[in-house]
Every structure is written in C-alpha cells, then in structure tokens.
Amino acid sequence: MDLTAKLSPERADFLRRLKNGTCSHAFIVEGAKGSGKRDFALWCASALLCESHAHAPCGVCRSCQKAAAGHHPDLHLYGEGEKAITVGEVREIIRETGMVPVDGERIVFVLSHAERMQAPAQNALLKVFEEPPAGVVIFLLTEARRALLPTVRSRGQSITLSALSDAELERTLRIRQPRLGADELSAAVRASHGSLGEAMDFLSKDATQNRIKAREWLYAAFGSDKYRLVSLVSMPKYKREQAIAQTDAFLRLLFDLLLIKTGARAVLLSPEDAEELGGRATKRALAAMCEMTMESRERLEANGNVTAVMTNLASALWSAAN
Ligand SMILES: [Zn+2]
Predict the structure, then answer these.
(1) Residue 186 Cα to ligand 1 middle (Å)
(2) CA pair distance 52, 153, nearest whole angstrom
(3) Ligand 1 centroid distance, CA of 197 (Å)
(4) How many CA atoms lie within 13 A of 226 on its CB side?
(5) Cα of 64 from ligand 1 centre, angstroms
(6) 68 CA from centroid of ligand 1 (Å)
(7) What is the 3-state secondary structure of 203-240?
C-alpha cells in the first residue's frame, strides 16, 4: 500500500525526496493566508526529526509530537508574531545553525512571514540559506514569494501549497482543537474546501454561535409556535454586523437544506437534522425563504433599521414555511 496516497501532492513529494535522499536544505513555502504554510512546515519538521526512519513522520513518537506542537528542542521558530524577523534575529539563527542537535541528527528552522523581512535581514540570511551546515533545514514561509530578494528566491526550493486533502485537514484540526466534537469536525472539513484558514474561521466562537442560532431559527420556522420564531429572529438586540453575520449563517443552512432536497449530501447540517428538517421543508418554501433572507440582508447592508428588518424577516419566514 502506498502510504503517501492520501497526502497532498506537496507532502507526498517532500516525503519522496526525503526517502530517496534528494531533499533540499532550504525551502520557500508560498501560500495564501490560512493555506496552512506553518502546519506544512511543522509536518515536514516532524518527518525530518521523527525517530522512526521507515515511517516518518510516524505521528506518535516523542519527536513527532513535539515537532507538531512546535516545541521540539531542534526546531526553531521565528517570525511568529506581528513583527518582521530582524538582522539581530538572523544572527541568532546563524549561530544556532552551528549548534549540535539536542535530540537527533537535524536542526530545523521555520521562518514565518518572510515577506516582511527587510532587505538587510534577508541579505544576512542569504549565506546560511544558500549553504546551511550539514543537518540544518530551513523553511521560509511567505504569502508572496515575489516580496523576497531575487537572491533569496533563487537559493531555495519553492513549494506552493495547494488545498489540503480532507484527511490532512481533519488531522490538523484534531491537533489544533483536540476537544472538538466529531460532527463539528466533519462539518468544518466539508465546508472549508481544503483551506485550514477557512476551517479555523468556521470553528471560531462567533461562527459556531451563529450556526447554533441559525439551526434554532430553522427548527422554529418549521415548528408550530410562531412566537418562538419571532422571538429568535427579531428580539435579540443585534448590532448591524451581528445581524448580517447571523442572516448569512441562516442562509447557509437554507442552501444546505435545498441541497438535501435535490438529493445531494448536506455540508453543514448533521445527518439527523438533514433528515428531520428535510422532511418538514418543501423546496418551494426553502426557495422563498432564501429569497427573503437575501433581501433582508441587502436591507441591512443598505443601512435599513435593524429591528424593523429582522421583525419583517421573522413574519415573512413564518408565512413561507407554513
Ligand atoms: Zn515520529
């Protein structure tokens, strides 16, 4: 069985090179914000530092666990905060590349936000980036490769990140949020199209709250108590942005229900909700509800009175659903 089959092309390629000894020692990892550059680099670091040579990264040895968490003594992380890596830090990096590994045979450096580094800092890095001491591997992470000096660009092997596979995204989310329920986890994976950034947004406290409320709206709309729907939709003292975010969350669930009615698989709703709500809602009602929710959203965007818009929306949703 090919163990690399489920990996993204970049990870599979990195492993192949590592195994056949053609791995570079300097990488430029490019990807949009939230594309998982840091996780990719930490994953590569796990593979480089893993105690199991045959199955690196095994994911279970001490080295893999420490590397994945970013706390391995032979893993050095720079540029993690808001500030650019300075010339002084580059000098520190150069000094550290000359050290003997604490645990194994390699020392790995991950330099985040490399595009923020000023030219003197990039220049100072050049020598060690071009020809790191034996056992040293450096990853430069950047949102824009072109913001690096041409001299730096030409010295590293470029890797542009594509979307993560579902399995990778799920694994990464499990590490980031170990207490996450299975339903939320799989919904985040389905909704994020391989983007770690989108998945993290999806799982943010606000987005989760909005989804919970949107689900209550749905059950109330297809329930028997009009006042419950009205109180949920129009009673909260929403600020404009909150109301917009909340109607967006509701719209997504409506689209999800429409998908179910066309025989597709739900993206956001759990199978139980999909079955229960799908049984109560007609396609026609859902289409009308989508329409009026979008209209309300437009009114909110156009500075309409928030309470009035939400009150009208509650009544309209009730009429459409019943
Ligand atoms: Zn391992």
Answers:
(1) 26
(2) 32
(3) 26
(4) 11
(5) 4
(6) 10
(7) CCHHHHHHHHHHHHHHHHHCCCCHHHHHHHHHCCCCCH
Q: Could you tell me where the DSSP H helices lie in 98-239?
A: 119-130, 150-153, 166-176, 182-192, 196-202, 205-221, 226-234
Task: Work out whether strand 26-30 and strand 136-142 pair parallel, antiparallel, or are unpaired.
Answer: parallel
Beta strands 157-160; 107-111: pairing state: unpaired
Q: How far apart are CA 221 and CA 224, in angstroms?
A: 8
Lateral strand order in the sheet of 107-111: 75-78, 107-111, 136-142, 26-30, 157-160
Tens-level pLDDT at each residue, the chain (322 residues) = 344 457 888 999 999 999 888 889 999 999 988 788 998 999 999 999 999 877 888 888 999 989 988 889 999 999 998 899 999 999 999 999 999 898 888 999 999 999 999 999 999 999 899 989 999 999 999 998 988 999 999 999 999 987 788 888 898 898 888 888 888 898 899 888 888 888 988 998 899 999 999 999 999 999 999 999 999 999 888 999 999 999 999 999 999 999 888 888 888 888 889 999 989 999 999 999 999 999 999 999 999 999 999 999 999 999 999 8
Instruction: For residues 262 and 159, give the distance between their C-alpha atoms in angstroms, rounded to a whole number.
Output: 40
* The two structure tokens encoding residue 311: 């009150």
Structural domains in the chain, CATH included, are: 9-162 (3.40.50.300), 204-321 (1.20.272)
171: three-class secondary structure by DSSP: helix
Ligand 1 centroid to Cα of residue 23, in Å, is 18
Q: How far is the CA of 54 from the centre of ligand 1 (A)?
A: 10
CA atoms of 80 and 184, how far apart (whole Å): 28
